[in-house]
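Kindly review this protein for my students:
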Amino acid sequence: MDTSFLIFSIQKTLFCVHTYILTSQASAITYSIIETAKANNLNPFYYLTYLFEKLPNIDLDDMEELDQLLPWSESIPENCKIPNKE
């Protein structure tokens, strides 16, 4: 067997495995955010939209600013919240 073909095959396999792992991690994080939003009576679509609008504009080292984006924060906009049926 040609050595260069073998090296190419191994590299391609490793790339596919690495891509699969990264995709799995991203899916797990996204699923976790969505389920946490639902557990806090937030509409996942509107909450994710809110996060995508806010996250690029904040300092990710500022924990107080990040805390304001958590699903249980009082500062979450009303349009993200699911109204209680009372």
About this structure: The first helix runs from residue 3 to 39. The mean pLDDT is 85. The chain is about 60% helix and 0% strand. The CA atoms of residues 26 and 56 lie 18 Å apart.
